[in-house]
Amino acid sequence: MNKPFVPQLVYFEPKALDYPLGKELKEKFEALGIEIRYTTSHNQIRNFPGDNDLQKYRIAKSILVVGIRKTLKFDTSKPSAEYAIPLATGCMGHCHYCYLQTTMGSKPYIRTYVNVEEIFEAADRYIEERAPEITRFEAACTSDIVGLDHLTHSLKKAIEHFGETELGRLRFVTKFHHVDHLLDAKHNGHTRFRFSINADYVIKNFEPGTSSLAQRIEAAGKVARAGYPLGFIVAPIYLHDGWQDGYYHMFERLDAELPQDVREDITFEFIQHRFTKAAKNVINKNYPKTKLKLDESVRRVKWGKYGISKYIYQKNEEDEMKEKLYSYMEKFFPNAKLEYFT
Questions:
Q1: What angle do CA 41, 29, 56 make, to 5 degrees?
Q2: Residue 316: in which H helix or E strand, if any?
Q3: φ, ψ for residue 86 (rounded to 5)?
């Protein structure tokens, strides 16, 4: 996936054109010759074209809805941050294992919110409430915001907004390499720019529609040189033939790209592959030919909040995973900070 995302169809919700970003996006999409429609609510968008679930899902993911974020009460976002900042919802990637498939359900289209100043004002109120503590906001809970930002620049505005706050910090993660427009943002060191990285096998087989590992690593080098605090999420850690070599090679390539002077402040987050029964059903419907192994009998059950059970790797597999990945991190990035393994 080398080209930045361009929607095939754009819907505007009521009042979206009352905001400068709404007007700007309308002009941009008209100039690109993209079909524009109007809807009273994104919930009215149904019955996607296509002969089967896979086709319908693909087409739905190429639709962009431009609207207003009405709920300015932010969700919590542990363990990554205190709150999720809602700039967009949905993703143009086609990662087979993605949890958004179940959380987005019948609404896999992408939504972007044009009332960005109101969203920032709400964030500022949360910062005030927690002062003098630092408050971190995660911008990629429900979307890959970088994959959309070349169109909206909402993320760039957020980076510069938090750059001016004393106690606010921004974080996000991406699988896309379209970062050039973000390199000159006045971030003031207040935004941690994270990349989702994985063994080549996982990216090639389970992450279609996203940037390659080489592209992500090259983009990480650019981001590091632009002075951003940098982080990496290795997720989902997936056991496959040769996984030890695959993850070693990933670290080796990262080591070759990143300048020495940024290595004092790099974070890693490790997340092993997990799935729920509901997710398994949706994955098999949306990606019927997937090679993703979803066999409950070889996994162990982990109970999450709200009483939902997830299937994770057996304890001995998890221990080996930790031992290998920690040793690679220690070898190549001895000063990096491990934020968590889950």
A1: 55
A2: helix 315-332
A3: -90, 95
The SS3 assignment for 66 reads strand
* Cα–Cα distance for residue pair 129/120, rounded to 1 Å: 14
Using DSSP's 3-state secondary structure scheme, residue 67 falls into strand
| All residues at 6 or more sequence positions from 156 whose CB lies less than 8 Å from its CB, including other chains | 149, 181, 182, 185
Region at 203 (left for phi over 0; alpha for psi -120 to 50; beta for the rest): alpha
Q: Residue 14, Cβ neighbours under 10 Å: how many?
A: 12
The angle, 0 to 180 degrees and rounded to 10, between the axes of the packed helices 315-332 and 243-257 is 20
Task: Identify the band that residue 291 occupies on the pLDDT scale cut at 50, 70 and 90.
Answer: very high
**pLDDT single digits (tens) 50-103:** 888 888 888 999 999 999 999 999 999 987 899 999 999 999 999 999 988 877
Q: Which residue has the tokens 């990035």?
A: 333
User: Cα(184)–Cα(227) distance, rounded to whole angstroms?
Assistant: 10
Contacts of 160 (CB under 8 A, 6+ apart): 185, 186, 187
Query: HSE of 7 in the Cβ direction (CA atoms, 13 Å)?
Result: 30
Separation between Cα atoms, residue 8 and residue 20, nearest integer Å: 22
Task: Find tokens 């002009």 and name the residue.
Answer: 27
Find the radius of gyration of the CA atoms of the chain: 20
Distance of alpha carbon 322 from alpha carbon 170, whole angstroms? 28
C-alpha distance from residue 273 to each of 107, 203, 245, 292, 318 (Å): 24, 13, 18, 10, 10
Q: Which domains does the chain have, with CATH numbers?
A: 9-341 (3.80.30.30)
DSSP element (H, E) containing 137: strand 135-138
Note the pLDDT tens digit of each residue in 19-31. Answer: 999 999 999 999 9
Pick from 237, 171, 175, 147: nearest CA to 201: 237
Q: What is the pLDDT of residues 218-240, one digit of tens each?
A: 999 999 999 999 999 999 999 99
3-class SS at 112? strand
Q: Is the pTM of this model over 0.70?
A: yes
Please, which residues bridge with residue 195 across strands? 174, 232
